[in-house]
């Protein structure tokens, strides 16, 4: 059964629930543990949406889509290539992406996010699906000019770690098969990215398995699967929307 999970503030309390039609049903317990539907429904206008999980870490993939690798003339990697996005970068749905004081070109990257539901440490690929809770939409925002500004050191973490540079949500979709999904990115209403998840070089299960050999993944952690062709820059006042059918649409302004 597919469910769309949210996390939000309601009457000064942190709560979670599921989106059901145009209403939110409150749940009790833990999203990643014993959760029970309460039968109480809320109007979405009465809650403040938060990121659907509170990750201990967000890992972001590089060169994980065949089309983009071919465009950039990159050889397929032998293992996942990834960086970490700092917790200060996490941004709620509908939050404002802020331009860094350092200035320069800021780009959007629409991506599928894997949400971990159960601690994964050195898991086999055949078991990795049991550790995936669901999937979400994400924008791996990047200060492009900073990345290779110093020829002695590629600044991946800094370029992708500014405050507000990791919007994700608004929901986590559980019970969904990611392989037939498409990621679409809209800039000011114009479609800029439209690519299939099936073009991933490392599947979600393989990513979870291989990364869990390096470090433990905890409930709520997020793996951003990487992006494909169509990445572009944002100007102040722009609105970027990441849409994945079956999951939802994430929208944020850039100021």
Topology, pairings included?
Layout (H helix, E strand, L loop, with lengths): L2 E8 L2 E8 L2 E7 L5 E8 L5 E2 L8 E5 L3 H6 L9 E5 L4 E2 L4 E2 L8 E3 L1 E7 L8 H4 L3 E8 L2 E2 H4 L8 H5 L5 E9 L7 E6 L2 E7 L7 H11 L7 E3 L7 E3 L4 E6 L3 E7 L1
Parallel strand pairs: 6-17, 8-14, 9-20
Antiparallel strand pairs: 1-2, 1-5, 1-14, 2-3, 3-4, 6-7, 10-13, 10-18, 11-12, 11-17, 12-14, 15-16, 15-19, 19-20
GO molecular function: acetylpyruvate hydrolase activity; metal ion binding
Protein name: Fumarylacetoacetate (FAA) hydrolase family protein
Pfam family, one: Rv2993c-like_N
Report on the structure:
There is one protein chain. This protein is mainly beta. Helices cover 12% and strands 42% of the residues. The chain folds into 2 domains: 1-49, Roll (SH3 type barrels), CATH 2.30.30.370; 51-254, Fumarylacetoacetase-like, C-terminal domain (Fumarylacetoacetate hydrolase, domain 2, Alpha-Beta Complex). Strands 1, 2, 3, 4, 5, 6, 7, 8, 11, 12, 14 and 17 form a 12-stranded mixed sheet that branches.
